[in-house]
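Hey, resending since the last one bounced:
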Amino acid sequence: MGPTGPNGVAMIAPFFRHGMQKAQVHHGIRELFLCKDIHGKIGLRVAAIHEGVFVCLVQEGSPAALVGLRFGDQILQVNGKTVAGSNMHQVHALLRNCPVNNISIVVRDRPFERNVTLHKDSAGHVGFQFKRGQIIRLVKESSASRNGLLTDHHILEVNGQNVVGLKDKEIREIVEKAPCVINLTIMPSYVYHHMMNKMNFNLVRNTMDHSI
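The structure tokens again:
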């Protein structure tokens, strides 16, 4: 990856080939079944946006992580109860009151997110800059610009690894160690900020599931 630019901006230099692989965000609906842990928790926090309920924290090693819930998933139902129009406190209370076993959660796969596949050049660069996880600049004629990466979007995953809450240096290291083909999962920054504005940064950084 490229050097760090002015004002601490993490820089990724250009790439000059075409390439786009099939995105891994499908936006489909699925039903998950999970159980609470020994503390009576499932390791999940949500945020309410536009009358919908969205996952904003999945704790590492939690029941929520084990069944595959991810940042940005939209929760549609909990044990048959539709949650559209509910606020975060109502949904958290609903989850607390669920029985220990066989909790049903129906989700839509990350409706605000999309994937962009990039290819590194011989120097390991792909062509964009980011700061605090937000894409702020694209390099012309780069892999990033050719494949539809957008500014004012936040990086959520790199090749399936959640990077929400990580520092720019840590995200940069993950990209540098990635193979030549990099699949970025991104979300519009205004949605990201809405989801995260009531979250404690240290809680997200220290407990979010950052596994692949």
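The CA atoms of residues 135 and 151 lie 5 Å apart.

Sorry for the duplicate.
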